[in-house]
Amino acid sequence: MSTVAEPAAGASGPTPGRGGNVTVETRARRRLTGLTMVAPMLIVVLVFMGWPAVWTFVLSFTNMTVTGPTATHYQFVGLANYRELFTYGSGLLDSVGKSLYYLIVSGYIGQAALGFLLAYFLSRSAYGVRAAVGAVVIVAWLIPEIVTSYMWYVLLSDGGVMQQGYHVFGLNYQTWLISNPMLAVSLANAWRGAAFSFLLFSAALDGIPNDLIDASEVDGASSWRRLTRLTIPLVSSAIVVDLVIITLGTLNDFSLIYAMTGGGPGNASNVLSVFMYRQAFSNYQLAYGTAIAVVLLLMGAVLAALYIRLLRRQGSLADMR
Questions:
Q1: Mean pLDDT across the stretch 32-47?
Q2: What range defines the domain where residue 90 resides?
């Protein structure tokens, strides 16, 4: 006849509730440790980036100017700056259109698409070719932006290198900085910025297992089919990350455009960042310029949120939920 031994009194055996409590406490402790470690950097970011953003938003509801009585004794005017900004003829819609043109041509086509194509074709090339072309692309990225602006200005300006080259062959040339300034600044920015996308996509393409590529070749898949059905889906997360970074960087680009064209001729290259600068520091309407800055910030935030939503849908940010 068998008997079942009962646990001794006072013995501490595992209980269903206690294990769960330990897990919750452990997670809370880990989160607290993580917050403690990042707290110094978080404070620095909030002080040097968060507070200026908040102050910009507050100033957009005032009548502050750079000079005059309202430079120091400004008043709260509510939505007056935004009402003026969104009225017909303010120039906002024209600047938004030029900013989107600059983003698509310079950012998406000139940087993301060109960077991906360079990375894709060089990944299938000999090491010497890949090293030489990659070095040239990266050197263009390392050149300071103001130097890049001057180089392209000398190339495309009236009496510049391109005009002199056209004259050698007896051809007429009207400087692109006058006839098509948005295309000119887009080419300059794409030439400099394609290197980042190239490096990002090169790393992503190197992470694709060779077995998958070999298997697709054995199955008889064409180069186009391998690119669209295999390569692009496998690096889609890198593509979205690249688009987020390019969107935020390109929309806020100012130095290159202002150095090459100053937003002109007239308003022909007056993107949002230049429009903001002109209103704030050329027309001395600082609060009105900050209202434009808020619109630019919201525009970038909306586009970035859409891309991050794509990342979450792909599962790349599953750990951040």
A1: 83
A2: 85-320
How much is the pTM? Answer: 0.82
Element (H, E) at 183: helix 181-206
- Is residue 194, in this structure, part of any structural domain at all? yes
| DSSP per-residue codes, 76-111 | B-TTHHHHHHTSTTSSHHHHHHHHHHHIIIIIIIII
DSSP helix/strand/coil, 62? strand
Residue 43 lies in a domain: no
What is the CATH number for 284? Answer: 1.10.3720.10
The tally of domains found in the chain comes to 1
Kindly report which listed range (83-87, 222-226, 282-286, 314-318) carries the lowest average pLDDT score: 314-318
Backbone angles phi, psi at 89, to 5 degrees: 95, 0
Any domain includes 1: no
Span 91-123, pLDDT tens digits: 999 999 999 999 999 999 999 999 999 999 988
Span 197-229, pLDDT tens digits: 999 999 999 888 888 877 887 777 788 888 888
- Predicted confidence (pLDDT) per residue in 156-200, tens digit: 888 888 888 888 888 887 888 988 999 999 999 999 999 999 999
- The pair of structure tokens assigned to 16 is 């269903």
Closest alpha carbon to 82 in 291, 255, 242, 231: 291
Query: With 0-12 CB in 10 A as exposed, 13-18 as middle and 19+ as buried, what is 41?
Result: exposed
In a domain, 74, yes or no: no
**CB-based burial, 133-156: b 16+ in 10 Å, e otherwise:** ebeebeeeeeeebeebbebbbebb
